[in-house]
Amino acid sequence: MSLVRVERRFQGPERSGNGGYVAGLVGTAAQLDGSQVPKVTLRMPPPLETDLDLSAGRLTDGAALVAEAVPVDSEFLADATIDPVPPAEARAAEASYRGLHDHPFPTCFVCGPANQRGLRLKPGPIGSGRTACTWQPAADLGTDGLVDEVFLWAALDCPGGWTIDLEGRPSVLGQLTACIDARPQIGEECVALGRYLGEDGRKTFTTSTLYDADGRVLARAKHTWITVDPAAFN
Q1: Which stretches of the chain drop beneath a pLDDT of 70?
Q2: Which superkingdom heads the taxonomic lineage of this protein's source (predicted)?
Q3: Which helix (H) or strand (E) holds 25?
Q4: Scanning 19, 51, 69, 84, which has the fewest C-beta atoms within 10 Å of its C-beta?
Q5: Mean pLDDT for the chain?
Q6: Domains within the chain, CATH numbers bracketed
């Protein structure tokens, strides 16, 4: 068991941790065999600036379960990969990123325009229920010249979320299943893509894919989002 803290830098909504980042903390601690990937379910808004216990894919705050990972067969992500687009097309899509003007959670670590130490992703629409953006990982996101896996989980988060009409259907991450295939170099231009799959009641389903500068798949994910009232997090 180890103690972890979700620092305010890594928040999503104003008073809770970013779902992708927290899922990464839990998913990278899960016990898997070679044919499995972690499916992480967030059971409550992850508290900020609090000592949390992380053990074998379970994150707890005292007796409360914050998030847990269960192993699933890697075939679960067989249809998660989104066809790539050139970096120039992804950069052009950023100009249409809706979160620049009307973001339900502007302090989000991944895509919030008000988080000056965040990833600063700007997933803009590219048609057919897809989003795209570029990402150049900053120097403090890795320790060996490569990006730490937890930040790849984070980068997989919001490109999927912005395929949803977040103005009319504000949502937070409820579940994230991810596979990290490779780690990019610090400063390397990557392309992140999201794709809308469908919805069922308060749930929305999406996928995301992260590519490196050479067009190689770095990571893939599937998400389940839950519709919420943003005011509940203020």
Answers
A1: 234
A2: Bacteria
A3: helix 19-27
A4: 51
A5: 95
A6: 2-233 (2.40.160.210)
